[in-house]
């Protein structure tokens, strides 16, 4: 079993368009999944993969994230240019969306919360056929996304 708050290396990431970049300093963190209905709606997805750290360990570069108070205790940060959901902030804690990190970041969830709202079809994913992105489609794509950060 993975420890609840292992030490992670320095991590980098940002939004799709590159207007916002961040660095999270090395240290203990909690990597988890949230299935609650608020996270589903905030991410437009079945769950939110979150990386929880003290806000003081996050350094922002570029544009300042916009925030929206999604509840009386938390705000959600996003890029005002491209709309990428970046984080959930509650008090001095920030939970960064795992998909915003560089692809080589060793994110490994250690728990799941909000399980009362977990969508049933997630349990079937390992049984579905899997394939790479369609080569014919990729050959036509010209990405407007910023280059990926590297750890």
TrEMBL record:
Pfam families referenced in this protein's UniProt entry, alphabetically: GFA
Domain CENP-V/GFA: 11-108
Family: Belongs to the Gfa family.
Record protein name field: GFA family protein
Keyword annotations of the record: Lyase, Metal-binding, Zinc
Organism: Thioclava arctica
Highest taxon above the source species: Bacteria
């Amino acid at each position: 079993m993975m420890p609840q708050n292992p030490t992670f290396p320095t991590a980098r990431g940002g939004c799709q368009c590159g207007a916002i970049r961040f660095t999270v300093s090395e240290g203990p963190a909690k990597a988890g999944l949230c299935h609650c209905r608020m996270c589903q709606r905030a991410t437009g997805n079945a769950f939110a993969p979150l990386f929880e750290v003290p806000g003081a360990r996050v350094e922002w570069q570029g544009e300042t994230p916009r925030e929206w108070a999604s509840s009386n205790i938390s705000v959600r940060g996003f890029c005002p240019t491209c709309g990428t959901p970046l984080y959930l902030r509650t008090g001095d804690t920030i939970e960064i969306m795992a998909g915003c990190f560089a692809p080589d970041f060793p994110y490994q969830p250690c728990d799941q919360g909000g399980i009362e709202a977990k969508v049933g079809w997630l349990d079937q994913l390992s049984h579905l056929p899997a394939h790479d992105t369609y080569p014919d489609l990729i050959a036509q794509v010209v990405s407007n996304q910023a280059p990926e950060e590297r750890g």
